[in-house]
What we know:
Helix content is about 55%, strand content about 10%. It has helices at about 1-5, 45-70, 75-95, 105-120, 140-165, and strands spanning about 25, 30-35, 130-135, 135-140. β1 (about 25) and β2 (about 30-35) form a beta hairpin. It is globular. Strands 1-2 form a two-stranded antiparallel ribbon.
Amino acid sequence: DAYRAEMGRDVSGPVRTIERWRGTPAPGDPGFITNATFADDRRPLDAGEVNTGIARLERHHRRFRDVIGGVPVSDEIGIIIHHLATAEQWYLGNIDLVPDGKRPNGPLERFAWIRAFTLRVLPTLADRDILADCGGEGWTPRKVIRRTIWHERDHTRQIATILAASA
């Protein structure tokens, strides 16, 4: 299902699991469950992979904007969008990328602001070997892209469900 959602086509043949991860409580904060840093996440991104990551981020963000459409942002949806922006900024901060300037207050404006920053800094990460330990969880540029896409896709579905229920 994830492959079909990401690539827009079916998988032909069997899918093989090559790595499993069970979240573990972060040291010092048992309420925070760490997310996987897969072996593949540790490989530096080359310029082509950065461009692919940017294209994937843009594709998923278009889907998010299509779902939001011209609908007024309710408090419930605003909280979700604010959460998306905060999480993306946190992911980037885990590899020491912090945007300059004052962040906007509105959820849509803030999300657009951090996404523009993300797209602007990703090309600077090509061929850089970065592995940061953040509270027992490893972070790399590849993981930032993967988690950002997954997180936006997950909450876009959540927003779509909320909007469908209120229609």
